Amino acid sequence: MRPTANTRLALLTAVVITMCSCLNKAATNYDTSDVCTIASFSLTTPLADSKTAVAAATFSIDNDSTPGLIINLDSLPYGTRIDSCIPAIIFTKAIAAAVIYNQQGDSAFLTGNDTIDFSTTRRIRVIASDMAHHRDYDVRVLVHAVEPDLYTWEQTATDVYTHPADAQRAFRMDDKICWLVNSPTGQHLYESADGRRWTDRTAELTGLTGQLTFADLTTLNNEAYFSDNDRLYHSADGISWTATDATTLIDGYRMERLLFVLNDALWATFSKDGQRTTASSADGQTWTLRHALPTPFPTNGFTAVTFQSPTRQDQALIIGGISPDGTTLNTRWLTADGQTWINLSSEQTGFGARSGAAAICYDNRLLLIGGNDADNAPVGQPLLCSQDAGLTWYVPDSAHNCMPDNFKARTDASTLLSASGHSFYIIGGQAADGICSDAWAVRLNSIGW
Fold first, then answer.
1. What 3 state SS string does the chain have?
2. Count of domains forming the chain
């Protein structure tokens, strides 16, 4: 007859009694207890590739529930093997524990040397020293199920619009995403709260005239600015726009284009008699000349991104672009004040020439997406990453981080963080076969863990 679970427990208990009798023959006073709780639980493994991760796991112990629960507070790193682990248990007053393998009660005493597969939940039975009481615990060892350094891509919208278009730019204002699109017949505006559902607000759009590119559109204090056709446009809501003559902002100087927002100010390039310089403004109206631009500094087609250094210093980076003589540049100009510039390409010359790329600071690293090379062809590596302020760039784990097949290589896309900061959007852009009217959400798996 096959032994029942209770029979097996009785057999286990008998073995424990025998062991205790042998170990305590010389003892004249042996106090027993009905306490059968666990005070501490940890794991080790002989597997070299998982030793450190397994040993570092910290477990919480629920001694109140039935059965009790033992579970690690933080999931172990992706890929950690837990199929051969040795549990180390410290009892409160109990004397032994066994692992119960199935509902039939198949079990084995824990000796401190045998390995157990914790890939599934394991039940451990703790036996009190009075031999009459026991307590069960379920042990769950959590391991991250996804690669933390993998970027996941989701197309959140396919065709936000279907009309002809030749330029566009998306930007964030408050809790909404605004998407301005230029078409041969005028401008269009679309809004979304999540990058998925878009509302056409074109009928409400005012103040924009002529053919516009929105190429340097940026926001300061939740107000939007861009320059085009010697005008500086401004809006407090993305819908109603006003224009100022950009040739009158600084006497004798012409605004070329906006650069970025740095240290709570707009920065732009101005020129006079062939001399190019930077200028800044806290409100878009009053501008102050700052410093002559270094050479070669782009006039258009560059990528601007602002971020904070590890020491929390605001910095800005100008990547690539087209020089005044039409050359596609491989420069990466870094500044912390808009006046002093460092050309990082002087130290790392392997960075290829690039124009029309998109950049964003995400998870304390810079990401560079898309763009064209010096021959005006799509770049060979459409996704690059930098963790040293743009000095060096690498492809993030190219064995796994591949762009989806339906993501078209593109230039001049818009990138912006989601409201939570856990993901970022890639919106629109220009592909080889025409304008893109789609939106993508990209997330690093480890963000939000």
1. CCCCHHHHHHHHHHHHHHHHHHHCCCCCCCCCCCCCCEEEEEEECCCCCCHHHHHCCCEEEECCCCCEEEEECCCECCCCCCCCEEEEEEECCCCEEEEECCCCCCEEECCCCCCECCCCCEEEEEECCCCCCEEEEEEECCECCCCCCCEEEEEEECCCCCCCCCEEEEEEECCEEEEEEEECCEEEEEEECCCCCEEECHHHCECCCCCCCCCCCEEECCEEEEEECCEEEEECCCCEEEEEECCCCCCCCEEEEEEEEECCEEEEEEEECCEEEEEEECCCCCCEEEEECCCCCCCECCEEEEEECCCCCEEEEEECCECCCCCECCCEEEECCCCCEEEHHHCCCCCCCCECCEEEEECCEEEEECCECCCCCECCCCEEEECCCCCCCECCCCCCCCCCCCCCCEECCEEEECCCCCEEEEECCEECCEECCCEEEEEECCCCC
2. 3
